[in-house]
Specification:
With 166 residues, the protein is α+β, with helices and mostly antiparallel strands. The protein has a single domain, classed as Aminopeptidase (3-Layer(aba) Sandwich). Helices cover 34% and strands 30% of the residues.
Amino acid sequence: MKIILETDRVRLREFSLKDADFVLQLVNTPSWIQFIGDRNIHTLEAAQEYIEISLQKSYAENGFGLWLMELKESSTSIGMCGLVNRDSLDDVDIGFALLPDYSRKGYTFEAAKATLTHAAKELQIAKVVAITDTNNVASIGLLNKIGLQFEKEMKLSENDTVLLFS
C-alpha cells in the first residue's frame, strides 16, 4: 500500500485488491451512478478487475491515478481522489468521489487541494483540469474552491456533455 500524500485528516494511497469491498460500495452509491455513471461493477470480482485494469494500470503507466482516500486516525476508507490521464482530454484531470456519509465535511477539499499541489510540485504536471456533470453543484463548488475556473462546456460523447474547469 503505497501512501501518496497526507493532509491533516486524510491519507491518499494506492488501491489494492483488498479494497474491492470498498470500491463495490463506492461505485454503486446514488451520487456516483448519477454523476459519474454506472460502471457495471456489481460483484467483488468486477471490483477487483476495475482496481487492476483501471486504477493500478494507471499507476504503472502514468505514475499517478485515482487514490483511495481514508481517514488518518481510523484508516476508514471514505472515497477516492486523484489524477486521470484521459484520451478525451488534452490535460491530466483531477477526479474525486466520496461515500455520502462523509460528504460536506471538507475531506474532499483537503484531498483535492493536496492533489493539485502534488501534481505541480512532485509530478511536474503543468496544467490540471477537471470535468464534471452539468448538474453536479457540489463538484462545481469544490472545483471553484480549489482554484479551478469554468472554461467551457464540451461533449465527451453523443450523450455526455460535461463542464471543463482549468
